[in-house]
Amino acid sequence: MTRSESPPAHPHKHRRWAVGLSVALHLAAVGLIIQASNQTLRDRAPPKEAVVFLADIQPAEPPPAPPVSTPPPTPMLKPDRPTPREPEPDTAPPPGRAFMDAPPAPTAEEWALAATYTLKNSKRYRHNWGQQVRSQMGTAHEGPEQGIVRFRIEIAPSGTLARLDTLWTTSAEIEQRARTAIGQMPPLPPTPNGKPLIFEKTIVFNAWTAESPPLYKNDCLPDPPPRGNRFVWDGRSPQGPPADEPEPEKLDPQALADCLKQLPQDSIEAEAADDQRQQEQWGSQKLGR
Asked: What is d(CA 221, CA 242) in angstroms, rounded to the nearest whole number?
């Protein structure tokens, strides 16, 4: 008995298996290539910067304080009759107007020193007299009630006023006001040299001018001789060469030393006022003409 032989496999069936296996292998290879490419791109990509967020954290506000209960105001009882008030003196200057207060009057000590100062025609006594008058005239306001007056005064050796003449004035009202202040002056000390004291004094009553204290450091020096025009001729006297100018007086060294001992110390205000006068004198534009 013979074994029957099996029929041979169909060739198309084997070909399909080979094609499928080949396609599968190709797909797997493509997948591996794509995966490797993605990994390479990820490795080459720059690192991402870290983003930091800052939070503005503010402290919590404290809770509001509880309201404070204010006691009701106590009712004020009105008096049956209002209490009368005394009117206050009107010492304030008018609005928008300049003014200058009256300077203080010389003290008793200043008058005592002035009564012993004999240099320059009792220079300290004359200054105190003018300051006393201006002090009693009151505050000067800008306007028509201001002005200047110049007097010629003669004071007796006892310190009383012997004569008062008006040389000139810019306001009759200011002249009368100054005369009233002179009539109300307190008793003055005797004159320094025991003789009548005659001098001229200008009283300025306005809102800008204040009399400066005098300067005493040059009082021991002799007065310069009066100088005039050497070539002037009166038309009657015989003509000739001009007269020589007088020489200034020379003071004895011992007398000068004794005089310097009684000079008072000058104040800063006096020095500043003297500097200001010299600046106005030598800085005038008229000198350059």
From this structure: 28
Residue 250 burial class via C-beta count within 10 angstroms: exposed 0-12, middle 13-18, buried 19 and up: exposed
DSSP letter for each residue of 128-173 = HHHHHHHHHT--EESSTT-EEEEEEEEE-TTS-EEEEEEEEES-HH
pLDDT value for 92: 57
- The answer to whether the predicted template modeling score (pTM) of the entire model surpasses 0.70 is no
Query: What are the domain boundaries of the chain?
Result: 98-207
C-alpha to C-alpha distance for 259 and 220, rounded to whole angstroms: 6
- Give the residue ranges of the chain where pLDDT is below 70: 1-14, 36-95, 228, 242-246, 248, 287-289
Q: According to the CATH classification, is domain 98-207 in 3.30.1150.10?
A: yes
pLDDT per position as a tens digit, 91-110 = 555 567 788 888 999 999 99
Q: Pick from 252, 253, 233, 234: which is nearest to 242 by CA?
A: 233
Cα gap 200→152, rounded to integer Å: 4
Distance CA 125, CA 114 (A): 5
C-alpha–C-alpha distance, residues 192 and 240, integer Å: 45
Q: Which amino acid is at 273?
A: A
Q: Would you tell me how many other CB atoms lie within 10 Å of the CB of residue 69? A: 6
Each residue of 151-185: pLDDT tens digit? 999 999 999 999 999 999 999 999 999 999 999 99
Pairing outcome for strands 197-205 and 147-155: antiparallel
